[in-house]
Amino acid sequence: MRKPAPRLIAAIVCTGLAVSACATAPTSAPPPIAPAAPGARPAAARSATSLAASLKVGLGSGASLGGKQVFPADNPWNTAVDQADVDPNSAALIASIGITSTLHPDFGAHWPKGPFGIPYVVVKGSQKKVKVTFTYTSESDKGTYPIPKNAPIEGGAQSKGDRHVLVLDRSRWKLYELFNAKRVKGTTRWKAGSGAIFDLKSNKLRPAGWTSADAAGLPIFPGLVRYDEVKAGVITHALRFTVADTRKAYVSPARHYASDDTSATLPPMGMRVRLKADFDISGFPQQAKVVLQAMKTYGMIVADNGSDWYVSGAPDKRWNDDALNKLKSVAGSNFEVIAMGDVTTG
Questions:
Q1: Residue range 187-238, pLDDT digits in tens
Q2: Cα–Cα distance between 45 and 247 in angstroms, integer?
Q3: Each residue's pLDDT tens digit, 89-138
Q4: Measured in whole angstroms, how far is the alpha carbon of residue 155 from the centre of its chain?
Q5: Would you tell me how many other CB atoms lie within 10 Å of the CB of residue 308?
Q6: What percentage of the chain's residues is helix, strand, coil (to nearest 5)?
Q7: Distance between CA atoms of 254 and 271, rounded to whole angstroms?
Q8: What Cα–Cα distance (Å) separates residue 114 from each residue in 62, 86, 127?
Q9: Sheet harboring 104-106: ordered strands across?
Q10: What's the CA gap between 242 and 153, in Å, rounded?
């Protein structure tokens, strides 16, 4: 995948496609948590770690995690960056994405016939594992994957887009992700472009230079905007987003690039941006406000080539599309790049 990036334009094609069998009501839902005050830093320990002890991870498509945190508290996805330094090249990098271009929630409840986004399914540890064969074998995690027969596919069964399949094993606390996943007709086997398995109890990264089910070599699920979090009033992790043009480079925690362009004004995979502290979110609807506060506190990570400023989330029929669409009023000029440190170039 991705030497340099034949699959990545598909992210643009799949945007807005409806997802079949995408979100069902979770088997358990966390109690409401008071929204963070505008500009305030949410208490991650309260909203994630402490809840995990008392709330249950649900089962099924779009299930609630009951406040349980994905990856350890000190994982890059869960690290607040509201106090981090700004990268010296921030202005040029933001300009390359678009200062007048605006955010676009690439998830919701109704387009064109139902919920859309990147779906996921939570399974028990007893879920039967099936064999998966890969196109990009050398950078895929071999082994069997616990994929249910009716696992939701991004864009639906007939999608010509990225066709991601995300499966979370709640018993072993492991994440299984596939790109371009297709079930082999008449069998229990699947084939996919690539696949990755993540131990959600560990901070271990993929080998340097390896892709995953995402172009940057990152997990997809931890960066999704999920309904259960927004309903609870706080998101305690960074978000996944895409840009049209990236650099032939990556910065940790990303492990893979997907471009031939070496311009230093283009974002490397893994680059992190945050919504500026002085951007007023007080007038936004609640669902949009929770997302914007996460962008201030935890930021967003470049994970794939796609449409500029497209923010990834999970489909759910309970999203308020009118509220989410208010995010489209937030321009790129309101973001800044977090200091990146060492950049691995190709």
A1: 999 999 999 999 999 999 999 999 999 999 999 999 999 999 999 999 999 9
A2: 35
A3: 999 999 999 999 999 999 999 988 889 999 999 999 999 999 999 999 99
A4: 15
A5: 18
A6: 20, 20, 60
A7: 8
A8: 14, 39, 27
A9: 104-106, 310-312, 239-243, 300-305, 272-275, 335-337
A10: 19
Domain ranges of the chain: 10-24+37-345
Dist CA 34 CA 92 (whole Å): 37
Q: Are 230 and 32 in contact (CB under 8 A)?
A: no
The continuous run of DSSP H or E covering 228 comes out as helix 227-232
CA atoms in the 13 A half-sphere facing the CB of 55: 26
Written as six digits, the tokens of 36 are 């963070």
Distance of CA 77 to the CA centre of its chain: 10
- Its sign, for the CA torsion 309, 310, 316, 321, is positive
Four-residue CA torsion sign, 256, 218, 212, 156 = negative
Dihedral (Cα; 323, 324, 325, 328), 10-degree rounding: 120
In the chain, % of residues over pLDDT 90: 83
Q: What 3-state class would DSSP assign to 175?
A: strand
Instruction: Evaluate whether 222 touches 214 at the Cβ level (below 8 Å).
Output: no
Residue 5's pLDDT is 41
The reply to whether the predicted model has a pTM over 0.90 is: no
pLDDT in tens, 41-74: 444 434 444 444 445 899 999 999 999 999 999 9
